[in-house]
Structure formats: C-alpha cells, structure tokens
Amino acid sequence: MLVATWNINGVKARLDALLAWLAERKPDVACLQEIKSVDEGFPRAEIEALGYHVETHGQKGFNGVALLSRTPPLDKLTERGLPGDEADVQSRFIEGVYAMPSRSGAHGGDRLRVACLYLPNGNPLGTDKFTYKLDWMRRLEDHARLRLAQEVPFLLAGDFNIIPQPDDARHPSAWVNDALFQPESRAAWRRLVNLGLTDAVRATTDKDGVYTFWDYQAGAWQKNNGIRIDHLLLSPEAAARLASVGIDSHVRGWEKPSDHVPVIAQFH
C-alpha cells in the first residue's frame, strides 16, 4: 500500500503534472495540500477518470487539502477541519480511514487512518501569523494524542512548514529568521514526535541533502538549495508496517512544477 503527500501549489495550475504523477506512481492514497480551490471547482472528473475517489476541504484562492484514493474511505463521514477551534475557518486539515492489506495479503479488517494537513507558514515573525502557527500545532498535538490512544494505524501527512533539523536545509543559516526554523516551531515539532510518532523519512535515511521543497527564486532547484518540510509521521502501529520511503524529486524538474515534491511511504 502506497501513501503519498504532495503540496501541489494550485491543483488547476498543476493538473497535468498531477495526472502524470498519479499515472506514474499509482499511490493508493494521495494527500494534497494547497489545492487553492473551492470544493465545487476541484477538477475531480479528470482525477476520477484515473480511478481515484476524491474528498476535498477547499477554500477560494489559497489553502485547501484533498484526499485521493483508489477506494473510498471506510467511514462515510470524512473529517474536515482540525478540532480545537471552531472559529478557525482556514481549510488545512482532512482525515479519512482506509482499508490496508491484511497480513495475509488480502484486503481485510486492517485499517489506516490518514490525516492530510497543511500547517500554517507563520511568517512574518512577531505577528498573529506566527501565533496562529504555534496554536495550530498545539491543537495538532492534542489530536495526535487522541488518535494514538486509539491504537489504530495512523499517519499525519502533509506540508508541516517546519525544518526539523539543520541537516534538513542546504543552508540552515539562511532560515534563522524564518518561522519554519524558529526554536518554538522546532520545539513544537519535537513535542509532536515525542508523543510516539516516527518521522518516516528519517527512519529510513540519515543522509544530508534530502529535501522536499525548492523555491522558485534564485535557481534553488538547479543549485539543490532545498529544505525538507513535507513529512509523514507514523503511529507505532503504522511504523511497524513501514516497508520503504521515497521522495519523487524528479517531478520538480517537470514543466510548470510545484515548488514541493511528493513524499511516499510503502506499507506491507
């Protein structure tokens, strides 16, 4: 079973790339962030033509998340919006439950809960945007604690807008005044992981130069001036079934690319 996350940076602008990647990689569940589309404007017909079920939590012009899956979610009610603040109207969270292959190899009673998230950027520092970022992370921590207590395979997938460690950036010094690399942001990340979650990429490699985002400016892609901010965090039950992790960095070189690339985990 393949589960992927990708900040698509505008689903309509990147539709050709998305369709090509879905046909190439064939993920069982794909979590998209920053779709920048209302639900009724999402190009579901083109995606459904490839055999995918579509669930969205959209917003006009910015934000927005989506779950694409080869089979519909098991629960009829897909959860939209991160719990904990009814006044939060930003579309940044969607969660569904999907069938996993049973240990014998046939689809059976095993389930995987997939949460797709687009964490706030938080810039500029010293503004309400940074406060919102930290508040959102506290709510995410509360939600993850609840899900972990249920002891069902569970993962948090998405653009976290956090650089966890200096080796997750080509030039860490360039990010010291950015919300993505602030001590408070990284401390919130550590609190989340320390609940018992596994960073899927770092569970499989400790190499430098492992990035998921390259800015459009200053030839960042050509110079490999990247950062790792797109993550898959796994519950112990999901981590026990992790087979491999990949980053499809080649799609950054496609025509009209997103500035992010997909991160994919395979489960057995």
TrEMBL record:
Cofactor(s) needed for function: Mn(2+); Mg(2+)
InterPro entries associated with the record: AP_endonuc_1, AP_endonuclease_F1_CS, Endo/exonu/phosph_ase_sf, Endo/exonuclease/phosphatase, ExoIII-like
Annotated site residue numbers, Transition state stabilizer: 161
A UniProt-annotated Pfam family: Exo_endo_phos
Marked site: Interaction with DNA substrate: 260
Site, Important for catalytic activity: residue positions: 230
Keyword Acyltransferase: no
Gene Ontology process terms (BP): DNA repair
UniProt: Mg(2+) binding residues: 7, 34, 159, 161, 259-260
Active site: 118, 159, 260
Cofactor note: Probably binds two magnesium or manganese ions per subunit.
Superkingdom of origin organism: Bacteria
Endonuclease/exonuclease/phosphatase domain residues: 4-260
Assigned keywords, A-Z: Hydrolase, Magnesium, Manganese, Metal-binding
A GO MF label: endonuclease activity
Homology family: Belongs to the DNA repair enzymes AP/ExoA family.
PANTHER family, per the entry: EXODEOXYRIBONUCLEASE III
Stated name of the protein: Exodeoxyribonuclease III
